[in-house]
Write a structure and sequence with these properties.
Organism: Hymenobacter swuensis DY53
Distance between the termini: 18 Å
Helix content: 25-40%
Number of strands: 9
Protein name: STAS/SEC14 domain-containing protein
Order of helices and strands: EEEEEHEEHEHEH
Amino acid sequence: MFFLTTRAMSSLHLEPVGTVADANGKPLVDFLHSPTQKVLCARWYGNLTGREVTHVAQEYLRAQTTLYCPLLLNDKSQATGDWNEAMDWLEYEWLPQAMEGGLRAIAYVFSPDMHNQLASLTFFERVRKHIPIQLFYDVPAAWQWLRIQPQPLHRPPHTANPT
């Protein structure tokens, strides 16, 4: 089990779900899960491209089907790169599927990399028309915002029940 050590996140215990690697076997993202808080955390690594972001987003959809987490903590604080070429797919393909699977809010932690920040701002502008999303510079602030977001009372009927 993975524990985040800040006071604001003391109630968030994250269990590893899995790691998605790039074509060379280097980690792109670690997925972590808090079953009690219904949070899926995506912790990104490396220099990201649109292709890699799309690959990870597809893996997120698979994880969401099994885990059902209405809240996403998207942590790009350890990532770099320009992934703008994935933007249309993310807005018009991924986001509707994620929302259909139960996604209700995204806390988004910025990368210190300027190219990644520009892509993140574009993503934010596109997504905020459809779902609550907020940008942060650190994980504790993101978690503090995420934990006050409303969650649905019931799981969408088409998602699988966790085993």
